[in-house]
Write a structure and sequence with these properties.
heterotrimer; A alpha/beta (about 750); B mainly alpha (about 280); C alpha+beta (about 190); A: about 750 residues; alpha/beta; Rossmann fold; Dimethylsulfoxide Reductase, domain 2; 4 domains; eight-stranded mixed β-sheet; 25 helices; globular; C: about 190 residues; alpha+beta; three-stranded mixed β-sheet; two-stranded antiparallel ribbon; 10 strands; about 20% strand
Chain lengths: ~750, ~280, ~190
């Protein structure tokens, strides 16, 4: 017998035809019913699935992260395995390239760290896990739910914490699952943007922003409390185009951010005093008569009252003293802004994470409005938009089983994505508690208390505020179920973990809250291990609920993610994008057909008066000042300020845990001004302890004058295997606004204080 | 739990001839009323033997029958499957989903090949074994010893890599496939050990240069490249129970014996003391 | 001049987002710790802020590539058609001469395969009419593929501050420097 070489074997294995013939007459495919001793492998079938020789299969995917850019993705698959990803070239926003996080997706899908199977921890936090089959997991969960129902007479003891971990529209099926079980407790609100959302609603009647692709039309751009160089990298090319066309780019921020480095001018403002700075500009513009008198007269109410307020309470000297920006510069900036045609402000979410955040956004809105920049292409107070989110929310809108008892009393919106709320039995409702005070709410809520927590698309113990309080709150919970992909700090404290799919492993559809593109998400590969999509989990739970107690859950017991994606489309949404069916999206993402790149271009607002409201009665009805005006910041309760903004290497607690990401960013730091560090004997790279009334964090220090001397800066996020968590320092103090549109106030995330010593 | 074992008719007749009437009776009692399948094409007689709860218990069970020192099932497996008993139990261990299955496989392995240093390996409860198994191989957290070839062989140390594709290609050449069809990576150790079982069964029946070459490739250019690294990962991990450490040693020993690298502990045969009375 | 491909690193547009570095990993799945494209923050002596300006560097596809000169196994070749310096893994004997000799640190030693590796300018993609993965991914068009034979950017530098000056090697990378904004700070924040 001549010896067959390794190279020959490899060549034969490469080719599906040659390898099937290789053993020739020895055995015919499928002939052996069972092989001796063999227990796992099965006889092969003639068609082993698609086989590709050279070339890749491509799929359309959509990044489902909470990000301005919501990229359209093209996935390259070979032999059923995702090989690499690129940005879709058809979208002028994504323009063919993804960010550092998007480019790491292949590693995310195939990371050995991914949670594979449902598992149950034997004692929370012990690290002793048993594997469950899906049937076993659903059975345990269903029994617990029924036990709660029997005990309390309702399912108000079951709570859902869910937010923005995945924005694929069918993930609202988790809310739908809760509804299909009965009336439950919902953590409502949003940590993200509620104060500014309310403010824009009071001022204009809706939160709408210019198409970011019209930025090149601007002649003066202020990026105010936002850092697109880190958090919206695809927007940068439009800012550059504006600069190249002659626009002046100004960045206003307490920190010299990456975006600041790319600006024409960087203006350092005292944290939380953005309102004062903007009011100073308004006063100067008023004095010089540089505001748009015609526009203000035709399209607004309350301006005279605002003008009177400015004359009485605001001077640029006062603004300078409050904000730290020299008075002469406030005047210069005001004149440049008012005289540019058009001018625009990118209102950042960071800027409104303060006790006066909503008030500050109202002031920035006023500055844009009084200068006639609202409704102008290239202009506007750009914050966000949700008008492209007009789906059916079929996944979300499930009905409670008949006879369900729930909360009796006033109930408001359940978060900002509560579009077409199905109010079934008007007598009952879900019980809403504040997502931004999750820990306190779990501790305080009673009749019934929160007994069981379902966590999906959220990382409670990494991202929610006041972590020490959260750990206490978890002690009250009888069962914690977490649906996730990685063993994060919430899974560490779970009773049952359920493995979920990445968007490559399910069908879905995505839009952005910034740009105006619509992206299809095709299923590119099979779910890995035993991962299921959130709606498949809901279906599995429903099956078990109904087996144990018929009629206890109305969620369908089987779902097809493709079918459920298709059901999210309605005529209005199709018309907005000028397509006749979702199938057209297979050819690529599509942009909304806008009559103007600027909302409010017709000067007709959605306020009660149909005008821009410098004076808003609705605002007053919600407990704030009717007139746009200054609001004081939060008094300091410790020696230094603490800021915890977003890292460029992560989306909140996602991505940083991947080893590919750790290659470029391996550990967290706290950034300290050299003078402040010197006073404490801290050198560059020293191990330090940052501490305050909430808790403490230990990490290494880096010294830089890019942060104010009175400020400590660290980036929020989750590093694999590190105990680092900035929420050990952040309390749950609310921002002023947020309840109107989202059911709960926001959080003063950037109004925190702490001190630091060498560790 | 059903154990499927196909042996040739000749072997079975020979074995039965060696048995005492009580043993033969016991064997028949296992067979009834169990399904017997037949694959005419290859002249094999397949039968399913109802397994006792675990191999550990078989001695106690048979003690009651008097002179029989090993249950006939063990006899079969030892005689017919020989070294494959270890292979099959290794496969069963790594395929196990719960502590009972893990403990059963461990027990078989320990009986077949007791640890040289006499360390007790049954001290851990099935639960403790399960927690450790999940901590080492499954999750939900990152594991020190992921049981997939691609993690050790492919440059990015991820799943579904080149090595996974090679394993799937080898199964395809054998005419078998993983039932998960793309969800469970094909290069999971349990599947690869199952493939080794298939190779053994085929080689026992056929002399084929192609089969020998394919097995040689699978063994030397795949299994032997990653399994030792996998075993090393286990040995280097903290808090490894002795039972699992012993399984890892047996895995390495099996591999060594297959490749003729170095001598390993002998699998007990019928001629040893404590065999047929 | 013969066609010579290289990278144009526009540090004025570059925001240090690392998309290029990760695009390379996305394409080639290098082992953890083996990085072909790095994004280096400029020291504060050069750009007076902490990690706010960057040079994204992989291989410079030099005219007289040091790696080629010191390789005993002829594992490097420079393509006639476009000047791309290609590393041939199959010939590499892992001596690491190239790793030691390249002043730009382009070749990296892979401790698992025990061979060197480096950026080969995605030559397979180039031959298929596609852009290099890193260039395609850059969201600000700060990283571009240029042909030195036709590249005409009067303000481009071959040896900007912070980049080793090796005229004999004649690296093919060209740079535009980062700029600084006018900074308005409160007096007490200086």
């Amino acid at each position: 017998m001549s010896k067959i070489t390794k190279q020959e074997i490899e060549r034969i294995l490469e080719n599906p035809v040659s390898r099937r013939c290789f053993l020739g007459g020895l055995l015919a495919t499928g002939a052996l019913a069972v092989l001796p001793g063999c227990r796992l492998l099965r006889p092969g079938t003639a068609d082993m699935g698609q086989v590709w020789e050279g070339g890749y299969q491509t799929f359309r995917n959509a990044c489902s992260r909470n990000c301005y850019d919501t990229c359209s993705i093209v996935s390259y698959v070979k032999n059923g395995v995702l090989k690499f990803v690129e940005g879709a070239p058809e979208s002028s926003f994504t323009a063919g390239g993804l960010c550092v996080k998007g480019n790491s997706y292949v590693r995310r899908v195939y990371s050995p760290d991914r949670i594979k199977y449902p598992m149950e921890q034997q004692g929370r936090g012990t690290g002793k896990w048993k594997r469950l089959s899906w049937d076993e997991a659903m059975d345990k969960i269903a029994r617990k739910i029924l036990e709660i129902k029997a005990r309390d007479g309702s399912l108000l003891g079951l709570a859902l914490s869910k937010y923005s971990g995945s924005f694929g529209i069918t993930h609202y099926g988790v809310e739908g699952m809760m509804s299909s079980l009965g009336y439950t407790t919902r953590l409502v609100g949003t940590p993200c943007w509620p104060a500014g959302m309310d403010a824009q609603n009071f001022d204009m009647g809706n939160m709408l922003c210019n198409d970011p692709e019209d930025l090149p039309l601007a002649r003066y751009v202020i990026v105010w409390g936002a850092n697109p160089a880190w958090c919206s990298v695809h927007s940068m090319k439009f800012l550059y185009a504006a600069q190249e066309a002659g626009a002046k780019l100004v960045v206003v921020d307490p920190v010299f951010t990456q975006t600041a480095a790319k600006a024409d001018e960087y203006v350092q403002v005292r944290t939380g005093e953005d309102g004062a700075l903007a009011l100073g500009m308004c006063r100067h513009i008023l004095d010089r008569g540089l505001y748009d008198k015609e526009w203000v007269a035709a399209h607004s109410i309350g301006f005279d009252e605002f003008a009177a307020y400015l004359r009485e309470h605001v001077t640029i000297e006062w603004a300078a003293q409050k904000s730290g920006v020299p008075a002469l510069h406030i005047a210069a900036m005001a004149e440049e802004f008012a005289q540019a045609r058009p001018a625009t402000i990118w209102v950042g979410y960071g800027m409104q994470r303060h006790v006066n955040g909503g008030a500050s956004v109202r002031i920035l809105d006023a500055l844009v409005a009084m200068t006639g920049n609202v409704g102008k292409p290239g202009g506007g107070a750009r914050y966000a938009q949700m008008q492209t989110w007009g789906f059916t929310y079929h996944a979300k809108n499930q009905k409670q089983p008949g006879g369900s008892k729930g909360w009796i009393g006033a109930s408001g919106p359940q978060g900002e994505f509560d579009f077409s709320g199905v109010k079934g039995d008007v007598k009952y409702a879900d019980r809403s508690i504040n997502i931004n005070k999750t820990a306190q709410e779990i501790l305080d809520t009673k009749d019934p208390q929160v007994r069981m927590l379902w966590v999906a698309c959220k990382n409670v113990l990494s991202q929610d505020f006041d972590r020490p309080k959260m750990l206490k709150a978890f002690n009250k919970l009888e069962m914690v179920v977490v649906a996730d992909q990685f063993f994060n700090q919430t899974v560490e404290q779970a009773d049952i973990v359920l493995p979920v799919t990445t968007f490559f492993e399910e069908w879905n559809v995505n839009v952005s809250y910034w740009h105006y593109w619509l992206s299809l998400n095709e299923q590119a590969v099979k779910p890995l291990h035993e991962a299921k999509s959130d709606i498949e989990i809901a279906a599995a739970l429903s099956k078990h609920m109904n087996e144990l107690a018929p009629g206890s859950c109305t969620f369908p017991t089987t779902v097809d993610t493709k079918d459920w994606m298709a059901q999210e489309f309605n005529q209005k949404e199709l018309d907005m994008f000028g397509i006749s069916s979702w199938e057209e999206l297979r050819k690529g993402p599509v942009k909304a057909k806008l009559t103007s790149s600027a909302p409010w271009s017709d000067g007709v607002f959605a306020t009660p008066s149909k005008k821009y409201e410098f004076h808003s009665d609705l605002c007053a009805k919600n407990g704030h000042d009717a007139l746009v005006m200054y609001k004081e910041g939060r008094p300091a309760y410790d020696k230094l300020r603490l800021l915890t903004p977003h890292s460029k290497f992560a989306i909140n607690s996602q991505f940083q845990n991947l080893d590919w990401m750790a290659d470029f960013n391996s550990e967290p730091y706290v950034y300290i001004h050299p003078r402040t560090a010197a006073l404490r004997g801290i050198g560059h790279g020293d191990a330090v302890r940052v501490f305050n009334k909430v808790g403490e964090v230990r990490l290494a220090a880096r010294l830089t004058a890019d942060v104010p001397p009175d400020t400590l800066l660290m980036y929020e996020g989750w590093f694999k295997g590190l105990a680092f968590n900035c929420q050990n320092l952040v309390d749950d103090a609310p921002s002023d606004m947020g309840s109107f549109k989202t059911g709960a106030p926001g959080v003063a995330i950037h109004d925190q204080f702490a001190d630091v010593v060498r560790a | 739990m059903r154990l499927l074992a196909a042996v040739s008719l000749d072997d079975r007749e020979k074995l039965m001839a060696d048995m005492t009437p009580q043993q033969r009776e016991w064997l028949h009692s296992l067979e009834n009323p169990v399904a017997v399948g037949l694959t005419q094409q290859f002249g094999l007689r397949q039968f399913a033997a109802r397994k006792t709860d675990s191999m550990v218990n078989c001695d106690q069970l048979l003690g009651a029958k008097g002179n029989i020192r090993k249950c006939s099932e063990c006899l079969y497996l030892e005689r017919i499957l020989g070294n494959d008993l270890i292979l099959i139990s290794l496969r069963d261990f790594f395929a196990a989903r719960d502590g009972r299955a893990m403990a059963a496989a461990c027990a078989t392995l320990t009986k077949a090949s007791p640890p040289a240093d006499g360390h007790p390996t049954s001290a851990d409860t099935a639960d403790e074994l399960e927690y450790a198994f999940n901590r080492l191989f499954v999750g939900p957290g990152p594991v020190p010893a992921p049981p997939y070839a691609s993690v050790y062989l492919d440059p990015d140390h991820g799943l579904m890599g080149e090595s996974t594709r090679i394993a799937a290609a080898v199964y395809d050449a054998l005419g078998v496939a993983s039932p998960s069809n793309g969800s469970l990576p094909d290069d999971h150790l349990a599947l690869e050990l199952d493939a080794a079982v298939v190779f053994h069964a085929l080689k026992a029946r056929e002399q084929s240069a192609e089969l020998a070459a394919l097995w040689d490739y699978f063994l030397r250019d795949h299994l032997m490249l990653w399994v030792p690294l996998f075993v090393a990962s286990i040995k280097q991990a903290p808090d490894v129970p002795p039972a699992i450490s012993h399984v890892a040693s047996l895995l390495l020993a099996w591999l060594s014996e297959e490749s003729g690298a170095e001598p390993v502990a002998q699998v007990p045969t019928l001629s040893q003391p404590g065999g047929i009375a | 001049m013969k066609k010579q491909l290289g990278f144009y690193v526009d540090a004025k547009r570059c925001i240090g987002c690392f998309a290029c570095a990760m695009a390379c990993k996305n394409q080639y799945h290098q082992a953890s710790g083996v990085v072909w494209r790095e994004v280096y923050p400029l020291k504060e002596e050069i750009y007076p802020h902490h990690e706010r300006a960057f040079y994204s560097l992989s291989c410079n596809h030099c005219e007289h590539a040091a790696c080629m000169e010191v390789c005993p196994a002829s594992a490097y070749t420079k393509r006639e058609r476009d000047g791309v310096v290609v590393h041939h893994q199959e010939k590499c004997i892992g001596c690491a001469n190239c790793v030691r000799s390249c002043p730009y640190g382009a070749p990296r030693f892979n401790p698992v395969t025990e061979r060197a590796e480096k950026c080969s300018l995605c030559w397979q993609r180039l031959d298929a009419g596609l852009e290099p993965a890193c260039v395609k991914s850059c969201p600000t068009n700060a990283l571009r593929l240029i042909d030195l034979a036709t590249f005409n950017e009067p303000n481009a530098l071959q040896f900007p501050p912070g980049y080793p000056r090796m005229p004999r090697l004649n690296p093919s990378t060209r740079f535009r420097q980062a700029e600084l904004p006018k900074i308005i700070k409160p007096e007490d924040m200086e």
